[in-house]
DNA sequence: TGCTGTCTGTACGCTACCGAACATATGAGA
DNA sequence: TCTCATATGTTCGGTAGCGTACAGACAGCA
């Protein structure tokens, strides 16, 4: 039953103080994607919807940090110190069972935020947050987030809406885990992830995807081979590319469409 | 694949105006449980935590309604008109797939509220809310809930904490659906439901439980028989009784304990 | 008391997915 | 260019849960 998870990477950048705000512009972060454009908070949809005035007061507290594959943003029942607003990174919220098996609860990309529990008041959760696609995120200190949230402005409004979008995604994951095949779930996962990146190609192994879905690596291999035969995707060692998005949507269960539609409706984005 | 759901019951009580506030004391509601004590908003934990002052302003807007097995409190993508705070009723939030199969996303009893999306701002959800244990709930009109929530008082605080508890339960359902056996899931579901009632006996069919878990009725029959053999539960046509709670906890996966612990931590109850 | 609808028990073949073991092939780094 | 860690391919038996079908048994009601 135990499914091996990527060994957590200690990303020294994540330990730096806010003083080292420009760290991301230095080599340590630059390796992630050389061609990546200069980062900007508004690349995150939640931050992007804030009026200029709100953003002005917030921006001095936002710290750009590079997130790398395997970085743990939080672990079960440990106090979160920051909320993360991904711009190009993608984070997986997942739960690891007592027997060591894992499964993703929800993904978080540039449409969302990691650290809901900071403003709901719980501060910790039984789940973990792991980076599965390297990139950048802006982070905000715990106390700052709480302060901003309690201003009852646009940030509170959009975070509450995002919370509902998150609940929708988690709910859909629950139903999907119950009723849909691995191939359908793989299609759903690829589509949801595709919506969070710009490139159309994923840099990840089938083993990692298997951990996300909570299935065996072999099951992912079989499903991926099937999708490749149909011509939806193509893949090679450590890479997956979506070739035909329309066909991939046909291979997915409705869960993808439900989540996407709700996310668009609630946040006005995708 | 299609799993038949109980045909939605049109509960005339739910259509009455606030003027018929005392409806619950009349025969229509009385049948539910003759021995049931007079209802009181503080039987719901969320309402129960409110300071007297907050409660005073709220209580005039709270309407006691009887909820009966099969009542639908909301359906996918339709505007909610009320938030419900169960006292003795239990509601199932569930999703019905495109092929007609259903599975529970979370249960809501006297520890919670049905209608989160009213204050998050979405107003609708892709899921449904169906009563699976008859009883009572206090309800609050949509606009009243929003007004109260935006006061930024204790109600907002406790609702945000409840939202996190809900996310925990949904997340755990997702992981449980992926990794645990029907017998473990049945045990978890019975325990969670047991925490929401006072009697120790459930009035429900195996078919209904199967719809909740999203599995076949026969799978529930087998799991229930197994639990009965062990001596955890006993059941007869339309009734399930928990005989030995400790043993039932041993038959459950850790998901029950995780949800219960988090609920207690976040709400200080259950 | 007897009828009847509904709830529960049982059986059968089937399929998807699991667990384990091992073969092959890729590509990053020496 | 070669090496080797690691990613992917393949196989095989096992099993949990599904879909279907039907039998028995309970309980509400006439």
Automatic annotation (TrEMBL), chains A, B:
The keyword Transcription regulation applies. SMART domains: cNMP (SM00100). Keywords: DNA-binding, Transcription, Transcription regulation. It comes from the Bacteria. Residues 180-246 form the HTH crp-type domain. Pfam families: HTH_Crp_2. SUPFAM superfamilies: cAMP-binding domain-like, Winged helix' DNA-binding domain. This is CRP-like cAMP-binding protein. It comes from Cellvibrio fibrivorans. The lineage of its organism: Bacteria, Pseudomonadati, Pseudomonadota, Gammaproteobacteria, Cellvibrionales.
């Amino acid at each position: 039953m135990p499914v091996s998870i990527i060994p957590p990477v200690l990303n020294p950048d994540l330990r730096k103080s806010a003083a080292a705000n420009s760290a991301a512009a230095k080599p340590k972060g630059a390796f992630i994607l050389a061609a990546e454009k200069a980062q900007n908070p508004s690349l995150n949809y939640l931050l992007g919807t804030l009026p200029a005035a709100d953003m002005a007061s917030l921006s001095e507290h936002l710290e750009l940090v590079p997130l790398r594959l395997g970085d743990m943003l939080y672990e079960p029942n440990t106090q979160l110190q920051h909320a993360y607003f991904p711009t190009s990174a993608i984070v997986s919220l997942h739960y690891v069972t007592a027997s060591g098996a894992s499964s993703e609860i929800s993904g978080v990309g540039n449409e969302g935020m990691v650290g809901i529990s900071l403003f709901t008041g719980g501060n910790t959760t039984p789940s973990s947050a792991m980076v599965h696609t390297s990139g950048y995120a802006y982070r905000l200190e715990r106390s700052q987030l709480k302060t901003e949230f309690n201003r009852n402005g646009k940030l509170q409004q959009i975070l509450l809406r995002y919370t509902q979008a998150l609940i929708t995604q988690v709910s859909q994951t629950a139903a999907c885990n119950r009723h849909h095949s691995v191939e359908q779930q793989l299609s759903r996962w690829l589509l949801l992830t595709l919506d969070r990146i710009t490139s159309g190609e994923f840099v990840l192994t089938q083993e990692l995807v298997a951990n996300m879905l909570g299935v065996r690596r072999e099951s992912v291999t079989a499903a991926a081979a099937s999708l490749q035969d149909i011509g939806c995707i193509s893949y090679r060692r450590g890479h997956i590319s979506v070739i035909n998005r329309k066909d991939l949507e046909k291979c997915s269960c409705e869960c993808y469409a439900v989540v996407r539609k709700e996310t668009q409706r609630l946040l006005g984005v995708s």
